[in-house]
Amino acid sequence: MFAVNSILLMTLLALALGEVIDFKACDTNDCDIHEVRVEPCPQAESHAACNIRRRKPANMSFDFTPRFDADTLEASLNWVKSNDQELPLISMEKDACKYTKCPVKNGEKQTYQVDIPIESKFPLNYYTIKWNFQAPNGKHCCFTHDIKLVR
């Protein structure tokens, strides 16, 4: 009975925290990115881009271990339009410390979690989005993942 209850609890926790999605760490990175989650994203099981609805916030979170100390982190979320062009999502809150513990400490694993507003003006399409969290000293955590905006 204990084993069944434990499995049920772990399943409920996994559903509450979001689906683990595929991501790619940036080539230059001062963090270890352990896991990225998006809620809702039933497509994660088949390793496909998450279908994100416009006009509804998407809950996104990730676990990371910085290889630096910093009192603050500035967040940015960009659409990777091409290899040399990125467009910022203006509605993104830049103060990452509102959504994770600051100061960040070298070698201490932590979680960043935020609801991202997906505005109706964003065209329906596939996108590669890039998350970047930069410290005042230039050290940063960075990764990309794919989404698909749907009605």
Please characterize this protein's 3D structure.
With 151 residues, the chain is mainly beta. The protein has a single domain, classed as Immunoglobulin-like, CATH 2.60.40. Helices cover 11% and strands 44% of the residues. The chain has one helix and ten strands, in the order H-E-E-E-E-E-E-E-E-E-E. Strands 2, 4, 6, 7, 9 and 10 form a six-stranded mixed sheet that branches. A four-stranded antiparallel sheet has the order 1-3-5-8. The radius of gyration is 16 Å and the shape is globular. The model is unreliable at 2-16 (pLDDT under 50).
Radius of gyration (CA) equals 16 Å
User: Judging by the overall fold, what is the CATH architecture?
Assistant: Sandwich
pLDDT < 50 runs, ≥5 residues: 2-16
What is the string of SSEs from the N terminus onward?
HEEEEEEEEEE
CATH fold call: Immunoglobulin-like
Count the strands? 10
Q: What is the terminal-to-terminal distance? A: 43 Å
Question: Could you tell me the strand content as a percent range?
Answer: 35-45%
The level 1 CATH classification is: Mainly Beta
| Count of folded domains | 1
Please sum up the structure shown.
Residues 1-18 form the signal peptide. The chain is mainly beta.
Question: What are the salient characteristics of this protein?
Answer:
single chain; 151 residues; mainly beta; six-stranded mixed β-sheet; 1 helix
